[in-house]
Amino acid sequence: xxxxxxxxxxxTNLHPGQTVAEVLKGLRQFTVPARQRFNPLAAGLWLAxxxxxxxxxxxxxxxxxxxxxxxxxxxxYTLNTFPFGNFxxxxxxxxxxxxxWASRDRYQYTLDCAEILTELMDKDLTDGSLSTVPLGFKPFxxxxxxEHECIAHLIELAIExxxxxxxTGKRIRLxxxxxxxxxxxxxxxxxxxxxxxxxxxxxxxALDDVRDYVGLCYDVCHQSVEFEDVTDSxxxxxxxxxxxxxxxxxxAIRIERPKENHEARKALAQFAxxxxxxxxxxxxxxxxxxxxxxxxxxxxxxxxDFAAADEWRVHFHVPVNAESVGPLATTRPxxxxxxxxxxxxxxxxxxxxxxxxxxxxxxxxRVDLVDGLVGELSATRELLEQT
Length: 387
Hints:
- It is built from 14 helices and 14 strands.
- The chain is α/β, with parallel strands linked by helices.
- It has one domain: Divalent-metal-dependent TIM barrel enzymes (TIM Barrel, Alpha-Beta Barrel).
- The chain has an eight-stranded parallel β-sheet with strand order 2-1-14-7-6-5-4-3.
């Protein structure tokens, strides 16, 4: 199978956007100039709850928003519906996982996003996607009925997405995005959960809808941080009947021989910051050890189990065209492997570059954002052509 023939997209969650006006500002300031240098380009929009509500309440505003996308030659076939609220608060961290999939608010927001996406898609595009939270955050205390409620909402959503397709001719698929320290973080956990989802969907006479409309967003960096073999991971998902509806083209930080690599650990300490979680994993002779967030103390004075590791990997999205960031290595080799594995699938997932951390890179690592985006997109196109 070839790669998705839609224009390559980048996710606009790296731009602030709590109002329609703010979203348009980001598009005009960054996305349009990037598209002038990299064409064709799709806008992988992040539309927070307040933005979706604003568009729903004003048909003229929605029409104007859609017209502006067309005016600038920007297609849209995918939304990032993972961040519900303000993804640019001073401190986001674990709040990004709220509301979770046991919440009615998460269900309704996702359905509303699907309806808006059908309005934004070009007439010749029939397949859309929505990436979303991997149910919830493990360190939060989950209620006894948490999984049952998540599954019930996902089944209900699948039925509504099928009805939406019948009304509009647009097939919008959900893409659950495994992430470190979340309820679904590993490939094995994804396979087990989807087995339960399929079983309960069959009992509800909705198995066909769930298989067609609910799948995964495979964020390459996330599975790399877990030290998974991404080729085998994608093969396992395919064998288990779990559809990958979207690929997040991403890279993480890695350090080899961290105990003796003082220069790399000194550089890594600069990546500890206050907005986003940067889950950190270490591979030791005794298995993986992990911590929920990177700190300067961890980098500078690692505890014995981290010091014993042969490699660390950190969930910090770095530019996908970077083989290294100063003395730090990246997981770009896994990106090549993942794309090769995706190409062997019998269908073509949507492809989206998702480096949302440009604004929190350490001083001295930041570049002009448009230059950075064009560099990532161009390198990704070359990688796709080589794969």
